[in-house]
Amino acid sequence: MKNSNIVGASVPRLEGRDKISGQARYVDDMKLPEMLYGATVRSRIARGTVREINFGSEINWEEFVIVGPADIPGRNCIALIDDDQPCLADGVVNHPEEPLLLLAHPDRHLLAKAVEAITVEYDSLPAIFNIQESETLAQVIWGVDNTFKTYLIEKGDVDAVWERADYVVEGEYTTGAQEQLYIENNGMVAQFDAEKGVTVWGSLQCPYYIHKALMKLCGLPADKVRVVQMETGGAFGGKEEYPSMIAAHAALLAIKSGKPVKIIYDRMEDMTATTKRHPSRTRHRTAVSRSGKILGGEIEFTIDGGAYKTLSPVVLSRGAIHAGGAYYWPNVRIRAKAVATNMPPHGAFRGFGAPQSLFALERHMDRIAEAVGISALEIRRQNFLKTGQTTTTEQVVHEEIDLDKLLDRALKLSDYHAKKEKFAADNQQNGGKKGIGIAAFLHGAGFTGSGERFLGSEVGVEVRADGGVRVLVSSTEFGQGTKTVLCQIVAETLGLRYEDVEIAQPDTQEVPNSGPTVASRTVMVVGKLVQSAAIGIRETLKASGKIGDSYSAEEFRAACQAYVEKNGTFRSIAKYEQPEDVIWDEEKYRGSAYAAFAWAVYVAEVTVDPVTYSASVDDFVALQEVGKVLHPTLAKGQIIGGVVQGIGFALYEKVIWENGRMQNGQMTNYIIPTSADLRSIRVHFEELGNVHGAYGAKGIGELPMDGPAPAVVNAIADALGIPFDSVPLLPEDIFDALGDGTAREDVFSSPREPGGRENDDRIAAA
Amino acid sequence: MTGSPQRSAECEISFNVNGHATSLQIHAMERLLDVLRHELGLTGTKEGCGEGECGSCSVLMDGLLVNSCLIPALQANGASIVTIEGLTADSSAKGLQQAFLKCGAAQCGICTPGMILAAFHLLSKKPQPSVDEIREGLAGNLCRCTGYMQIVEAVAEVARSGAAR
Amino acid sequence: MRAQPAEYELVAPGSLPAVLALLAAAPGRWLPIAGGTDVMVQYSAGKLPARKLVSIWNLPELRRIENLADEIQIGAGCTYTDLRECEVINREFGLLSAAAGWTGGIANQNRGTIGGNIVNGSPAADSLPALLVYEAELLLVSVKGERRVHYSSFHTDYRKTQLAPDELIRAICVKKRFSEYYAHARKVGARNAQAISKICLAALGRIAKGVVEDIRLAMGSVATVPLRLCETESVLKGKRIDRALLRLARAAAAAEIRPIDDIRSTARYRAGVTGNLVAEFLERLSAGGTKSE
């Protein structure tokens, strides 16, 4: 008996009650007996060697636990893809804020003072701070050529297209670093005893990443490391890899002191020391026919990875694969590389390379349109991927996606044509310049290529002694509603009430490794596994004759109870298997990169203020095809939240660097939008289903990050009639681009004399 | 140890927290936020920035919305403080809390206590705020997850129904 | 939090005379703290040099607004919310209530004080240009008595004022003679709320038959102190507002200001926008806009 009011309905959030009452427990809300507080002594230079470390006499160091590299039981590294990132720098420093030493003390107030009392003398080396400097190889700071990773994607015969091109359009586009700015700072609590090993509780996305890192760092076996996720106050990728570093630090202090240790970053430390979105540079060279069809192109996509490899190869991969966007490229060559600089390593942030390469592409499409002399709409219609065509990696688009129609709907929702006409007329007058811009794009859900197979995710659904059902995954909730949606899926699958299903808090001692909570994979990949595991429960009960083909929730519960009574623990495990039609060649970087793509068209309407040159977004339409909307309120929330982060990426958020250190590491000076900055964001969905996702769902967590920046910048270019190829685009940048006084005034001037034609008479009469 | 600064004596602070008369011995410059979280175990009030910018530490002090990270304990002496725990315990913000749940106004939840305090304060001063007034009233509370729209929706719904309680 | 509370002393004598006595007994030793919205930020960052503080929060003598016949006296301890909610300020001194509404969010407006804003002395402070164009006077008080000074000379350099070490500002006095002026103010920040000014303008003007009778312009964040644009004003007084005058005004303002590059903006942007702000004001003045915007 199916209860179809669960999946697709905005059921009350499981996690909701605690959050609105102040009862949700985040890591800083946790206290253990005899707990010490921990702090990190960090490098003040970008590159060099440590000559001497002095402990100031104003502090009684006997009271402190002090940990250095020599205290590390296992390997001094934060294990990730490579092991090149040290847990504590051992004499050699490669970026500002690199951890050197750890301190712990019972009085949390004393720690900041103790950190300040430690002075380090360095022998500095010349450092490099951006992609261009890295490429010159004047300083080689990593490997033999400062290059963490390269990819080459080739399709067709690019070299042959240039001579038959009617237009060759070139462009270079750059994006800056972006700080995730989750409102809850990073933190960890760690405890050690010889019997149980290391336990950490923290603000985190990926319990098993931390588990793996701690095993290596501490030289402990899997069953002597336990990682528990606390309520996590926002993450967005910013708590994907760096928590392993903090957990390592807390664990080392706990091991040395024999006491629990809590490390909570304050905002400045979190902003200056932890990861940010990779800055990028994309170069396009595109051969286009007279009618605007892309014949082929070369794309060079480069990201700045900071001082250590961390996740840069994976960010690079996604950015490179998305570099061709939602269009058909008959011939293409994409050269992608991730380079090293002496900055704190850049890392995961919602979108993970795609916002960077898609910004470039969608700006470039508008540039191509202008070169060819057709509209921004027409250039896209000429080149949209169609069912049956292949992407840049030669993945066949099987589903019946009609991007033309999606565009039509977006234009209708945004009243695009009428507005474009009106703005063109209004812009002739004095006052703000208005513009409207679009971005059309896609986002692949799940790990790239063979990534999901490599992860081999495992989930469990278990029956409790009281007959209730419990979901076991390592997927974490940090605002997106993980717990709610996975329970919806199980409840719907089993024909139970939503209230009958619960989910375990991610604890590596309790739950299997369902992979990290990243890459928009939770609902789609993990959700489908959870569905399989639930079906396993149902089939077992059926096979044992305890239930028939149709049953009530009460009958199901009774059957579960009986089964557990008779057979003991009842747990159904499902393990990921790569679908047969998702084939990827890791060598040639070709094939089905993602099990599913979500598709979108975003439209931004902006006004550029003639006095201040600030651009404001007056209306925003976000239309996307997402397979299936499992929880409308949560899905809408994801899109709006992502759009606002994307608008921040475009217009507000600038990291100001000096010698590799972030200078504006306070909320006062790193600007994100407030509630007073946004007027109207309208979200609409289409649903084509998805065989690879639970109930047809595709991942949507990152999709909304890709479109806003190019849509907004396209709109500003439309408003002012000049191109902009970089984000963040601040009023100061618009001001500089408008040229000197006269040129600038001309953009905004009108034939109207001050006093206004209509007021002249009035003044004369007075 | 040479040249260590003089340590100040603790002083007695007496104030009312969530309807309970409370007295503590505390340093005068201890932040009210830390007094609430560490001395009184009221961890619903959060620290997001320590600079009075994010509003996660918002509480009511003598009926006015304030950022508790910027208030020295001594200045709270004799004051009446209300935190998210207090609003929950006496159901004074029940309507708001339900609306937040229904409209998706809380995602990760870290800004939510402060946001509810700010919304509660706004509605206590302006029971029928316009959308612009809601946006302004909440502009001192930063949220990174929701993009604000569903928060504004929740507050507007409560204003419409006239049921903050 | 990068400070140790145990290293700080904070006392609250509870009355103005008691506070003044403390300041007199050890001039320069005790830092007054009102709402704390500036001091506590420095403190938390571990950057507050002072170790002894005296609370002047909510002293009744400092927190009243006196509506006299020819002027109002705003207690220095009035918060931005107090200013926003005061009927006579809204009616006669709209630039002040507007500026109060720009400062921080509601929570900071409930605690930040006008006196604190002045003494903190940041050239970026939102209320200060309004005080310049209203030609405010300050009542400074100490155990020795009270003195009245022109606000226009109160700021002597970046974050330095005429305030003696044993003094407090008791009240800000503004004469009630601006109701016939067209008032205009605009703040340029990085976002619509909770933004430190990149630049801001407060302006008052009176025209008759298209000719400028009186004009007052003051700006924040274009010099080391809040700046009254006296030279630009003199270029404009007595002139007809037309396109040529706008150009003159832009040039005069650009010459008068001393903007810098800093973490928030660039000197050239500030200079360019200054011209736009002044021109915008003149256009509105000329269009005979309503008294307050």
Structure description:
The complex is a heterotrimer of chains A (766), B (165) and C (293). Chain A is of the alpha+beta class. Chain A is built from 21 helices and 28 strands. Chain A folds into three domains: 134 residues, Aldehyde Oxidoreductase, domain 4, CATH 3.30.365.10; 188 residues, Aldehyde oxidase/xanthine dehydrogenase, molybdopterin binding domain (Aldehyde Oxidoreductase, domain 4); 344 residues, Aldehyde Oxidoreductase, domain 4 (2-Layer Sandwich), CATH 3.30.365.10. Helix content of chain A is 31%, strand content 23%. In chain A, a hairpin with a 6-residue loop joins strand 23 and strand 24. Chain B has two domains: 79 residues, Roll (Ubiquitin-like (UB roll)); 69 residues, Orthogonal Bundle (DNA polymerase, domain 1). Chain B is 35% helix and 15% strand. Chain B has 165 residues and is an alpha+beta fold. Chain C is α+β, with helices and mostly antiparallel strands. Chains in contact: A-B, A-C, B-C.
Stretches with pLDDT under 50, minimum 5 residues of chain C: none
The strand line-up of the biggest sheet of chain B is 2-1-5-3-4
Amino-to-carboxy terminus distance of chain B: 57 Å
**CATH fold category name of the largest domain in chain B:** Ubiquitin-like (UB roll)
Order of helices and strands of chain C: EHEHEEEHHHHHHEEEEEEEEEHHH
Q: Which outline of chain B best applies?
A: elongated
Radius of gyration of chain B: 17 Å
- CATH homology group of the largest domain in chain B: Beta-grasp domain
The figure for the number of domains of chain B is 2
Our Rg estimate of chain C from Cα atoms comes to 19 Å
**Largest sheet report of chain C:** 5 strands, antiparallel
